[in-house]
Amino acid sequence: MREYKIVVLGSGGVGKSALTVQFVQGIFVEKYDPTIEDSYRKQVEVDGQQCMLEILDTAGTEQFTAMRDLYMKNGQGFILAYSITAQSTFNDLQDLREQILRVKDTDDVPMVLVGNKCDLDVERVVGKDLGVGLAAQFNCTFMETSAKTRTNVNEVNVANNDVIDG
Question: Which reactions fall under this protein's catalytic activity (predicted)?
Fold first, then answer.
């Protein structure tokens, strides 16, 4: 069975762990507990083939940037997450992507841009059009998700299939 390393990156508090746990275990984690590093494994079927995903849920805080280079080096696909309720988390994505491309030493890295917390539309500060525009600039798939309501949680993984197909 093929194995693939998917790395979930984004600023602190955007819901990386909530998305990951919702995908792997089907539960919503309500309380915020800053992550240092968690690794999850889930078997999925892609194009009729069984695959094992190793999903690395990374720290959003700056103090762990040295570890981040290692995640990026080993990762085969990336989920770049931001919160639609926090502009700063969206602004951080450009630097994250540049760091991935530098570490991987290529411009062709499979990634999915994810605007999380779409259930909080009344608190939205980052318009969907901005996510669509940034994804076009990054040449990657974009979708909005909610770990709480499970909106598009499985679809993010399917969008990362170019990692597996590639």
Answer: GTP + H2O = GDP + phosphate + H(+)
Structural element, H or E, at residue 87: helix 87-91
Q: What is the CA radius of gyration of the chain?
A: 15
In 3D space, the residue among 62, 27, 19 whose CA is nearest the CA of residue 160 turns out to be: 19
What confidence tens digit (pLDDT) does each residue in 65-110 have? 667 788 899 999 999 999 999 999 999 999 999 999 999 999 889 9
Residue 166 in this model has a pLDDT that exceeds 50: no
Cα separation, 88 vs 135, whole angstroms: 17
User: φ, ψ for residue 67 (rounded to 5)?
Assistant: -65, -30
Give the list of residues 6+ apart from residue 136 with CB closer than 8 angstroms, or none: none
The answer to whether the beta carbons of residues 39 and 70 sit under 8 Å apart is: no
Output the CA torsion sign for 129, 153, 158, 16.
positive
Distance separating alpha carbons of residues 52 and 42, to the nearest angstrom: 6
Report the alpha-carbon distance of residue 5 to residue 39 in Å, rounded.
10
Residue 48 neighbours by CB under 8 Å, 6+ apart = none
* Token couple for 157: 């993984």
CA angle (43, 44, 45) in 5-degree steps: 135
Which token pair is 155? 């679809």
